[in-house]
Amino acid sequence: ETGVTQSPTHLIKTRGQQVTLRCSSQSGHNTVSWYQQALGQGPQFIFQYYREEENGRGNFPPRFSGLQFPNYSSELNVNALELDDSALYLCASSLGGDRDHNEQFFGPGTRLTVL
Amino acid sequence: DQQVKQNSPSLSVQEGRISILNCDYTNSMFDYFLWYKKYPAEGPTFLISISSIKDKNEDGRFTVFLNKSAKHLSLHIVPSQPGDSAVYFCAARGQGLTREMRFGAGTRLTVKP
Questions:
Q1: What is the largest CA-CA distance in chain A?
Q2: DSSP-assigned letter for residue B53
Q3: Which residues contact A31 (CB under 8 A, 6 or more apart)?
Q4: Most buried among A59, B7, B21, B55, using CB within 10 Å?
């Protein structure tokens, strides 16, 4: 059973550019959630995808968008990058529909630096 | 809006002693509370959880206590080991479709040999 993987591990961009981050979910998981973790803070929920559909979104602007593919891997796209977008981006996979605590398994994250 | 707060950014304890990490929340609609542990260069890993209908859950050296009237939960680690040194995040799960989790800012635990 493979865990959650993310690519790339590190990325440097400049203001105004666009970036795509990728996540492969754990085998058998059909739900992916994306989080932004700024320095010194806890992860903040960006959005969640369940069976290729976005089914929830946190307080992030529309320039944060995503996709989930038939194999349940996912992408996070950020347009018009701003300096404050510099953060660790975490992907977490889970098995949706679980009425229990619905444990999420996190990837190691992508460290994005915007200059 | 900080619905989940961890007011202690760091905690240092001696090996073998008890570590107590605290967390406060403001939203009474959360139905599950979870603790995650994070090592550098790794994603958070699930440690232990508690349903809002319980007041205690124990798993080996780890026990989580929930005080709903005070909107407070705590994680007890006993005995503490140097390998427990990490950042601990408290998270609270909403009841909506996404089971969205709200995280605290984390507490860095250092266990000294």
A1: 42
A2: T
A3: A25, A48, A49, A50, A51, A72, A93, A94, A95, A96
A4: B21
Nearest Cα residue in chain A from B32? A101
Type of residue found at A97: G
Q: What are phi and psi of A71, to 5 degrees?
A: -85, 10
> Could you report the per-residue pLDDT of A16-63, keeping only the tens digit for each?
999 999 999 988 888 999 999 999 899 999 999 988 899 889 999 999
A87 near B CB under 8 A: no
Look at residue A99 in the predicted model and tell me its pLDDT.
Answer: 47
Question: A11 CB contacts (<8 Å, ≥6 apart)?
Answer: A19, A21, A110, A111, A112, A113
Put simply, the answer to whether A104 touches B101 (Cβ < 8 Å) is yes
DSSP, collapsed to helix, strand or coil, labels residue B82 as: helix
CB contact, 8 Å: A60 with chain B?
Answer: no
Q: What DSSP string describes chain A?
A: ----EEE-SEEEE-TT--EEEEEEPPTT--EEEEEEE-TTS--EEEEEEETTEEEEE-S--TTEEEEE-TTS-EEEEE-S--GGG-EEEEEEEE-TT-SS----EE---EEEEE-
